[in-house]
Design brief:
The chain is an alpha+beta fold. The protein has 8 helices and 7 strands. It has a 3-stranded antiparallel β-sheet with strand order 2-4-3.
């Protein structure tokens, strides 16, 4: 290893902050920092209810890599993961309002965020996927909407729009 994670967009800080702000996620990250591990192996060493969500957040932040583990004869191959970076560098500038939104999204336990996310999910299901339109509708910045997509496992950004992810993967 020894790769450096260079963050040029402040939104990319959200998966990092989420991961290191939750003890269970940090524990999973540390396990993956030492070895290649499957989701099943992680579930035996860490709180199994957190593993899938943590892996999703780490993938969104491009903080882990994955490969197929060769199975024993007659078994199916499984995906295994490990951390990608051992160092970090930030190279961005943003206004304080956007920074405040990013920090709030990343570390908040505010139930108000859950309510906005549910409303956004409803809008996306009804066909309103534009980040700018969603930001106007909810009276927040486009950075706020993009930030939610980095925190919430079911949401993601595709181009200038939002999408709901299929969690059955």
């Amino acid at each position: 290893m020894g790769h450096i994670r260079i963050v040029n967009d402040p939104i990319e800080m959200i998966p990092l902050l989420v991961c290191f702000n939750k003890d269970k996620f940090k524990e999973i990250y540390e396990l993956l920092n030492k070895n290649w591990m499957t989701e099943e192996e992680l579930c035996t060493l860490a709180e199994s209810a957190c593993v899938a969500e943590c892996i999703t957040i780490l993938k969104k932040g491009n903080l882990i890599e994955e490969q197929w583990r060769m199975p024993q004869p007659g078994k199916k191959p499984t995906r295994e993961f490990r951390t990608t970076y051992s160092k970090f560098r930030a190279n961005f500038q943003c206004n304080m309002t956007d920074l405040g939104d990013i920090l709030h999204i990343a570390i908040s336990t505010d139930e108000g965020l859950r309510n906005i996310v549910e409303q956004i999910e409803g809008e996306i299901r009804n066909g309103n996927t534009s980040i700018n339109d969603l930001a106007r509708k909810f009276g927040v910045s486009p950075i706020f909407i993009r930030g939610l997509a980095k925190r919430i496992p079911e949401l993601d950004v595709k181009g200038q729009g939002m999408v709901l992810l299929d969690r059955s993967e």
